[in-house]
Amino acid sequence: MERESMTALLPESFPGTRGDITEQIGFIWGQIKAPLIVPLLKVAVFICLSMSIMLFVERVYMAVVITFVKLIGYKPEKRYKWDPIRDDVELGNSAYPMVLVQIPMYNEKEVYQLSIGAACGLSWPSDRIIIQVLDDSTDPVIKNLVELECRRWGSKGINIKYEIRDNRNGYKAGALKEGMKHSYVKECDYIAIFDADFQPEPDYLWRTIPFLLYNADIALVQARWKFVNADECLMTRMQEMSLNYHFTVEQEVGSSTYAFFGFNGTAGVWRISALNEAGGWKDRTTVEDMDLAVRASLNGWKFIYVGDLKVKSELPSTFKAYRYQQHRWSCGPANLFRKMVMDIVKNKKVTLWKKIHVIYNFFFVRKIVAHIVTFIFYCVIMPATVLVPEVDIPKWGAVYIPSTITILNAIGTPRSLHLLVFWILFENVMAMHRTIATFIGLLEVGRVNEWVVTEKLGDGVKGKVATKVAKKPRFRFGERLHLSELGVGAYLFFCGCYDLSFGKNHYYLYLYLQSFAFFIMGFGYVGTFVPNS
Asked: How many CA atoms does the CB half-sphere of 374 hold within 13 Å?
């Protein structure tokens, strides 16, 4: 049967040599299959099934917790003291804490006005708030535009500071750290941070500061992200589904159980004393936000996630920008885990259960296992078992567990449930990049410290694409060709063909769909395409 299947798959275009090649391949395959391939594949399947169970248990645990939280209405206002800040006739505005609002940016031509305008529009006593724009732009034109915008708001009576530096050392972490060195920061009690594409509502500070003011053990109040361009294309809809799960489940569960979760780097307010006590901003990884959160948590500080407070933001809508972002978001946590795992183990300020939660649940399962098992198991090992029928994957591991995990992940975005199949295929492709990035972070090699600022298109993309649609854009094939996706797509397509011809598990239905997803993304037909100017 094996010999016949090998022969059938070889093309007819090799007359006279086809039989010899088939015999040689068949002989080599027969020699290494039983003693080497089968045992290795069985071990790989066992490891992947073990990781699948870890991920399954974690997802079910979070589903149970979030269901309980929603049923009993376990909101932050019930767990912690929260009262509106009231005017004091005697103290006047000095009754209000001093707040610093930081906006780090880098060549943000499309969105700088939105973020600065939203920050300057925050409702708070004007003499108790400082807006600090940290501009690392290297484009002199954009730099000048940002400075003019700051001056424009300053002329309206807003206390806004435009700060620059002569290098980009440490990237965002370096800019935030440098921003904290200015003398006027010493007057501030709390610091709100917004990336350049974030637009907080005017009442943002009124809803977050009371948590910090009335609860001395709270270090961070994190708001949820709201995506203004979720409907821009299918890729942004897929991102919305993934991030909605992160916010509605992961962040909510972390806040409700261990008062710990990863700071999202923006749309949050920090107690400055907690930030300084934790050692301030560090640029040793590409996730300076998570780094700070873990260090502050190990000092005993608590975090609050306010899920019904939403801050507008933009999703990356080009595939290139999204790949860079996902590399950073996957590589950074793995690298931070490598650097901090022993610090967490040796820490004596937090309970054993919290250590286990941070090491196992937060880092190992969510930041490492989730990426690896999604790609290695479903896009490498499972297809390989088609070629080696001696290795069998139980139905619970191949169907039931991934189906349950998928449903639990997707339920955070009910409006997109009809896109579930597309989301699965898209996430499996992105899992390849996340897996590579995870190993780079764990091994601390190659692009471990690569920081590419996520491209924001703002409202300008609509006009840009509209004006260029009539013209024939200058298109270079290589710009949209991704060989890694095409290579995996070809592998899956081959396994699908083999399974259709000789298999018994009917994996080919999945393998064909997944291979097409890799091909589509490999040829760059995903996301928004902005033609070159």
From this structure: 26
**Residues contacting 264, CB < 8 A, separation 6+:** 222, 225, 251, 289
- Other Cβ atoms less than 10 A from the Cβ of 487: the count is 13
Rounded CA gap, 2 and 20, in Å? 15
Secondary structure (DSSP) of 441-469: HHHT-TTTT---PPP--TTHHHHHHHHHH
The pLDDT of residue 354? 94
Amino acid 33: pLDDT: 81
pLDDT of residue 477: 55
Complete edge-to-edge strand list for the sheet that includes strand 129-135? 160-163, 129-135, 99-105, 190-193, 268-271, 218-227, 302-313
The candidate with the shortest Cα–Cα distance to 266, out of 316, 323, 198, 218, is 198
Is 499 catalytic? The answer is no
Q: Using one digit for the tens of pLDDT, what is the confidence trace for 57-108?
A: 999 999 999 999 999 988 999 999 999 988 877 777 888 999 999 999 999 9
Tokens describing residue 304: 């609050």
Q: Write out the two tokens for 243.
A: 């991030």
- Measured distance CA(228)–CA(307) in Å, rounded: 17
pLDDT, residue 277, reads 97
**CA–CA–CA angle 336, 413, 262 (5° rounding):** 20
289 included as an active-site residue: yes
Which of 407-411, 413-417, 430-434 is predicted most confidently?
430-434
Rg (CA), the chain: 26
The amino acid at 315: L
138 — alpha (psi -120 to 50), left (phi > 0) or beta?
A: alpha
pLDDT in tens, 41-56: 999 999 999 999 999 9
Catalytic residue of the set 136, 283, 291, 499:
136
Q: What is the pLDDT of residues 240-277, one digit of tens each?
A: 999 999 999 999 999 999 889 999 999 999 999 999 99
Q: How far apart are CA 251 and CA 262, in angstroms?
A: 8
Residues in the chain: 533
Determine which one of 135, 283, 289, 499 is catalytic. 289
Cα 236 from Cα 234, distance rounded (Å): 6
More confident residue, 160 or 12: 160
State how beta strands 268-271 and 190-193 pair.
Answer: antiparallel
Nearest-angstrom CA–CA distance, 301 and 289: 15
DSSP at 98 = P
